[in-house]
Amino acid sequence: MSRSFKMKAFILLTVLAFTFLQGYTAVLEVKGPSEPVLEGQDVTLECVDTESELNMSTVHFQRFSKYMKKWYRLETDQEYFYRRCFLYDVDVRREDDRLLLFIASIQSWSEGPYRCVSENSSAPDNSSQPLTIPIHYMREVAVHRAGLGYFARFSNSVQDLKVQLGDDVELECTTSASEAPEYFWAKEGDDWILPSNKLKLEKVSDQNGGRYTCSAQSPTVRSLMKKRTISITVLPEDAAWYESTTGRFILMASGAGLVLLVVVISMTAYLCRRANQRNRKGPIDDRSQKKPIYRSSVESLPSTAGDKQPLV
């Protein structure tokens, strides 16, 4: 075999390999929003072929289910499945050889990941890289007395706080958000700002009364902010203890405990009474307690009576 023939064969194989690889040069990519996405916004995703080698009619969107641990196609029946079971609206559209995915009022649980997949290619890279949408959200702010337990903290959110003169007050501001927020306290009519989620007032005086506002702000999306304003009223020293917010809370808790105690006692007495009633009832059919009835008497007689022929 001549050297020139080997060279021609090598060139031919190189051309064939290059042609084979050209069929798989298509690279799929999911493009999403370029700006931060807030919960409740409408979002549009687009699947694009960066090499323009594929017919986009053979490409579809998929979403990964973290619960089922598998990818689902977001079109036709699968799209209906997601609308009904995951409570958000998705709409796949094909416009001028473009593949688009519309998500209406996106929520934190619908962040993805998403990808697009080619149906006609069996190559390992027939799908795009997964895209997860960062969704920023912040729930309403709650203000409560510091040091309370989990249940009491969220069931005892205050708006109008009444404290006695000379008492110590410590308030805490909380919320749930996609990122740990920055907290600030401010008082209406004053120019100070306290960068903290806690506000502590020691030995309150009349000057401490007024309206206080706690603000929670996202560290990355500055427009995402929630506020809660409360009113603090300082009672005189001779005010009854139950007039304060703490006193009213104690009364409410005591009343709830008393009601629960009455219910428990009533249920216990009812169950005991039912048990006693069951014990008092004799057996329904106890033949050992029956006595024969004789012709000469309407009542049961001892077996020693003269008549020896029982009726029953």
Q: Could you write a compact summary of the structure shown?
A:
With 312 residues, the chain is of the alpha+beta class. It has helices at 3-22, 76-85, 150-155, 245-280, and strands at residues 28-31, 37-38, 43-49, 59-65, 70-73, 89-95, 98-104, 114-118, 135-136, 142-145, 160-164, 169-174, 182-187, 193-194, 198-201, 210-217, 225-235. Helices cover 23% and strands 29% of the residues.
Features:
single chain, 312 residues, four-stranded antiparallel β-sheet, 4 helices, 23% helix
Overall residue-averaged pLDDT value? 76
Helix and strand pattern:
HEEEEEHEEEEEHEEEEEEEH
Structure class: alpha+beta
- State the shape: flat
Give the count of helical stretches: 4
Instruction: Estimate percent helicity.
Output: 10-25%
Computed over alpha carbons, the radius of gyration is: 40 Å
Order of strands, widest sheet: 11-17-16-13-14
Low-pLDDT regions:
8-24, 151-156, 241-245, 247-251
Care to count the β-strands?
17
What is the CA–CA distance across the termini?
A: 126 Å
Strand content: 25-35%
Q: In this structure, how is the largest beta sheet organized?
A: 5 strands, mixed
